[in-house]
Write a structure and sequence with these properties.
about 160 residues, alpha/beta, Rossmann fold, 6 helices
Length: about 160
């Protein structure tokens, strides 16, 4: 049976840390669906379509990765896609409490779907989408922390660079 995982997130925007989790996740899973959560109660810099475009471009070298979006409960989306696991990246202990609570709730709703936590690679431990946006907004160089397309889109969004 195929080992399929869902890697959910807002990916606003995708960072090299996210790409690292996908690359290492593929050592555990045959296929990964990177899924953008549709959350109308949150305000995002990039539209869902823009985030999916950046994800597709950033992950194009991985032939067993696809992108998608979903709303509602993650475990329902995972079941619909016949996934056996939810893949989550964690940067620090501060991520753990929230992610642990979500994993327990997901397990309560569907015991067939496991949550797998991967620690972010050390080089990306201080990188988050929020920090990337903050630095980029003030013209800081984030080129080493995000895929090329993301760096270009951030410059366009904030109105500087080429």
């Amino acid at each position: 049976m195929e080992r399929l995982a869902i890697y959910p997130g807002s990916f606003d925007p995708v960072t090299n840390g996210h790409v690292d989790i996908v690359e290492r996740g593929l050592k555990l899973f045959d296929r990964i669906i990177v899924a953008v959560l549709l959350n109308p109660s949150k305000q995002f810099l990039f539209s869902v379509e823009e985030r999916l475009e950046m994800l597709r471009d950033s992950l194009k070298k991985f032939t067993t990765v696809e992108t998608d979006s979903f709303d509602g409960l993650l475990v329902n989306f995972a079941k619909e896609k016949n996934a056996r696991a939810i893949l989550k990246g964690m940067r620090a202990v501060s991520d753990f409490e929230h992610e642990f609570q979500m994993a327990l709730m997901n397990r309560r709703m569907n015991r067939e779907i496991q949550t797998v936590f991967l620690m972010t690679g050390f080089r990306w431990i201080f990188t988050s989408s929020s920090i990337i946006k903050e630095v980029a907004r003030f013209g800081g160089d984030v080129s080493g922390m995000v895929p090329l397309i993301v760096n270009q889109k951030l410059k366009q969004k904030y109105g500087y660079g080429s």
